């Protein structure tokens, strides 16, 4: 373990008539050049040094332009050292208290990001600051309160006092880190697209009013839309060290992706749309209790589902939608152009669309009591646009270096998407390329995991520098053929079906065991 | 002017599609290596940079291990830059707001140090912390409140917002700087005599909750009793650069002195006693309105006085006592052994001493209404002990390098003493050596003046390092003959009268114009 912070047990020379060096200078003389004491640590020197017979343990934490001595304790306490890692998601914040000697997570906390008071959408929060600059202070205060409460909970759970925490690492996208530090993120979304900072530098906990002893390390961004959540995630991959190419994809409403190896890192980001997070269709919802999260259509042509928490269905979340489209395609309910086939299932019928003031075809996938929950032809269209955008970002990045998907050695999936969605469904709809399944690496919340890794390996600081040095930012909007490629990707799985041999195989197998004609005849409804 | 802080006007490249560097990184790219932005400055970047068309002025302030960018302003504001200097005296605090371009003081403030709520004596305050550690926080809070109020007053006077202050330099003795920073000064007075710090390093104003933009620079101490007030004072001398020897003396209840040249600095400190600050005799007082501050005994053998503010006399302060002894000696009222000569003046008579429960000889030097104000034989004894201690510290330092007083090229007098006392009287009583008067340099509050000099000349930081490197600390208590020398110095002006030729000459002249016999015959009373 080569943790970000270090504890050192020191046996200082005891003062005498001939050696009346002050406590601070006495301590510094026993440490390497470039060490400085924080004010908080200096205030502890008396009586700690005196009472401990000048045998003390100091905690060293990297600081701006040197090493900060952030704590002094009596005696030898080198057998314990703690850090916190934090992921500031726009919806959810997660924290872990980590034992920096064993690498174990001792406590965890999560909470809804209180910024959501200003809107679920990041843009709403940014606009709130534009309307009234005082809201910036409020948004920061809300965030810091959340963080303080999580620190309290983690520390209480593990029985570790906050002042024993020697560092906190923080992942989050550019806007989240701006709010955390009280900086206006207006230009994250606004021309000239230059946020206040990519890397805010090392911050002292006292500057943010956080009760820990150590410094705060925010994950550096590479560009506007490639924030600290992405660099943090990259620490969980080997993109920056491997010889062959690998791809990293973090997809939600926006997609961020990185293609590279130890020679270069090509990065891009773009809007994918809200469909992958369930924010499509009138019955779409987040993956909360009662949300349909898994769907299968069996050989009996019946649709079966699972809900979060096993509760009666209230709507459908992103992973449910993905399954619905994939299974619908494999079962012939949806053709490769995305059109609903009314003849394929009795679940497919016309429903009244208030907005359009006319009937539209839809799949009634469940009933909430007596009310049908349905997914319309338009919803499918919106989903296809999202998946096409995501697919095309990957394809475009690969094309830009003349590489075919099969040359990718590993495909890292970050974020809630990679964790909660069914990989086969994602490939079936053509969201991901049709690679051998073992090449897919599910990272989960890699922003949090990367922040934890930095706590445990100070070498990650150099890696982050290296990652930023290797990075080239690709502007998808400016690339030729992006729109054209996206059109081609609106098909299931793709206009060029030969790119998806495994999907074609499944399609053939499915139609053999249960030919659509038979299904249509049975007209079995949803469970 | 080579001020401690620097303003730079920058024309940054405007962002474009091909140049989307974040604001912080854009700014740092235009500055030398080793610059860092404070959090406060980073928070200003948007909208300042954008609105100012990327033409901004940054304020650079030395920080720990690099240069801190503490402020960013739109446009070119290099024509204004302000600093604060502060002296934290144990009784009085003084502050000046300084124009760092012209060197002019734009505003001044002073206040009683609120720590005096815990006692006029420093030791009382230290003991209060020993009794209850919470008092440390209270003492710091009181000090910081005083400082904040003075900042407010200075800034309001000069029409300068606090956030335009780019640095604050602070002089003060070791205990005062400890309270200022919330560090326990117990070991300033207590074995092993190792305070928490000599040099606390550069501090951020935000760490102390002070509203200025720039950093805080406390004057470094050399030893326990040779605090930041002394090093600050030395900046007002040329001791560290001159070829021949000079002496620096700051005397009050304690004496601190430095003898040296560019080759070495010999430093010592010791208790002188409270007599020089008026805290001797029942009618002794501080130099407040109504205190007798000047005394002359004329050829008519009459004692005449001046009071502070011209008010009716209430008591006598240090400078009055010094004159009383000097004039009394020259007029034959007091002999060279310090004994009152009743025959010399009708002002000298016996008074009842409550403590001793017997009559003691005294000089009735004034009347407060009908109540006589007097100075007893014992008071004289106490004064002589104080002046002997001060004299002996100087003599011992000189002897330790085998130098006679006449070899001293300059004698710097720091603090209230040097400013308010009559130099002739001080030499007459043998407090200072009998040097040509032009060698005496009156510095006034050199702790404040040195702090101001540091604001205006960043080269002083190197000088302070040099001063600390040249310094050798002499322990008077451990020196041979110190007590013996002190005994010899209890005489007026000294047992060895040949050391005071100018005093002997004045004594002869005075007795010629007005022989003591004649005075005794006239028996004229005090005015």
Protein traits:
homodimer, 527 residues, alpha/beta, Ubiquitin-like (UB roll), Nucleotidyltransferase, domain 5, 6-stranded mixed sheet, 16 helices, 22 strands
Write the layout of secondary structure elements.
2 copies of one chain form a homodimer.
Chain A: E1 6-11, H1 23-29, E2 35-37, H2 39-51, E3 55-63, E4 66-74, E5 82-88, E6 92-99, E7 105-112, H3 122-131, H4 134-158, E8 165-172, H5 174-180, H6 186-189, E9 203-204, E10 215-218, H7 228-234, E11 246-251, E12 254-260, E13 265-271, E14 291-297, E15 303-307, E16 315-316, H8 318-330, E17 348-353, E18 358-368, E19 371-376, H9 377-400, E20 410-414, H10 415-420, H11 423-428, E21 440-444, H12 446-456, H13 459-470, E22 471-474, H14 482-488, H15 501-513, H16 516-522
Parallel strand pairs in A: 2-4, 5-8, 8-10, 11-20, 13-22, 14-16, 20-21
Antiparallel strand pairs in A: 1-3, 3-4, 5-6, 6-7, 9-10, 11-12, 12-13, 14-15, 17-18, 18-19
Helix pairs in contact in A: 3-4, 7-12, 9-14
Characterise this structure.
- Two copies of one chain form a homodimer.
- Chain A is an alpha/beta fold.
- The first copy, chain A, has four domains: 69 residues, Ubiquitin-like (UB roll); 137 residues, Nucleotidyltransferase, domain 5; 131 residues, 2-Layer Sandwich (Nucleotidyltransferase, domain 5), CATH 3.30.420; 122 residues, no CATH class.
- In chain A, 33% of the residues lie in helices and 26% in strands.
- Chain A is built from 16 helices and 22 strands.
- In chain A, the strands form five sheets. In chain A, strands 7-6-5-8-10-9 form a six-stranded mixed sheet, with helices on both faces. In chain A, strands 21-20-11-12-13-22 form a six-stranded mixed sheet, sandwiched between helices. In chain A, strands 1-3-4-2 form a four-stranded mixed sheet.
- In chain A, strand 5 and strand 6 form a beta hairpin.
- In chain A, helix 3 packs across helix 4 and helix 7 packs across helix 12.
- Chain A starts with 5 loop residues before the first strand and ends in a 5-residue tail after the last helix.
């Amino acid at each position: 373990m080569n943790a970000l912070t270090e504890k050192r047990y020191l046996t200082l020379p005891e003062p005498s008539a001939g050696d009346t060096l002050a406590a601070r200078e006495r301590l510094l003389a026993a440490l390497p050049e470039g060490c400085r004491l924080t004010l908080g640590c200096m205030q502890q020197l008396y009586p700690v040094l005196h009472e401990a017979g000048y045998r003390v343990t100091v905690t060293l934490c990297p600081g701006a332009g040197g090493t900060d001595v952030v704590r002094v304790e009596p005696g030898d306490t080198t057998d314990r050292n703690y850090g916190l890692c934090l992921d500031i998601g726009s919806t959810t914040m997660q924290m872990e208290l980590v034992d920096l000697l064993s690498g174990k997570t001792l406590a965890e906390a999560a909470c809804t990001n209180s910024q959501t008071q200003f809107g679920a959408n990041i843009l709403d929060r940014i606009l709130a600051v534009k309307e009234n600059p005082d809201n910036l202070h409020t948004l920061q205060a809300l965030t810091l309160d959340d963080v303080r409460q999580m620190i309290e909970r983690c520390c209480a759970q593990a029985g570790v006092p906050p002042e024993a925490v020697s560092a906190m690492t923080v992942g989050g996208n550019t806007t989240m880190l701006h709010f955390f530090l009280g900086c206006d993120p207006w230009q994250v979304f606004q021309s000239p697209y230059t946020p206040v900072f990519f890397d805010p530098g090392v911050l002292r906990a006292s500057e943010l009013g956080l009760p820990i002893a150590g410094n705060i390390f925010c994950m550096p961004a590479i560009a506007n839309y490639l924030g600290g959540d992405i660099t943090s995630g990259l620490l969980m991959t080997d993109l920056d060290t491997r010889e062959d190419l690998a791809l990293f994809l973090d997809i939600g409403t926006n997609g961020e992706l990185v293609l590279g190896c130890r020679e270069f890192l090509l990065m891009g980001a773009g809007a994918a749309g809200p469909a992958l997070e369930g924010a499509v269709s009138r019955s779409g919802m987040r993956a909360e209790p009662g949300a349909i999260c898994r769907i299968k259509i069996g050989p009996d042509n019946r649709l079966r589902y699972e809900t979060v928490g096993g509760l009666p269905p209230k709507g459908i979340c992103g992973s449910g939608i993905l399954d619905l489209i994939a299974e619908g395609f494999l079962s012939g309910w949806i053709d490769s152009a995305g059109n609903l086939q009314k003849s394929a299932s009795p679940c497919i019928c016309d429903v009244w669309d208030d907005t359009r003031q006319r009937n539209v075809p839809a799949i009634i996938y469940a009933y909430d009591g007596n009310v049908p929950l349905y997914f319309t032809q338009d919803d499918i269209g919106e989903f296809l646009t999202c998946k096409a955008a995501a697919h095309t970002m990957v394809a475009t990045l690969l094309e830009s270096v003349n590489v075919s998907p099969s040359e990718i050695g590993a495909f890292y999936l970050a974020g809630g998407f990679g964790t909660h969605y069914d990989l086969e469904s994602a490939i079936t709809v053509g969201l991901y390329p049709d690679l051998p399944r073992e090449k897919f690496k599910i990272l989960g919340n890699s922003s949090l995991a990367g922040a934890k890794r930095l706590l445990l390996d100070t070498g990650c600081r150099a890696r982050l520098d290296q990652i930023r040095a290797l990075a080239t930012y690709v502007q998808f909007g400016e690339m030729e053929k992006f729109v054209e490629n996206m059109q081609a990707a609106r098909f299931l799985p793709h206009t060029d079906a030969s790119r998806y041999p495994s999907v074609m195989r499944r399609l053939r197998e499915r139609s053999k065991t249960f030919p659509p004609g038979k299904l249509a005849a049975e007209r079995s409804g949803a469970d």
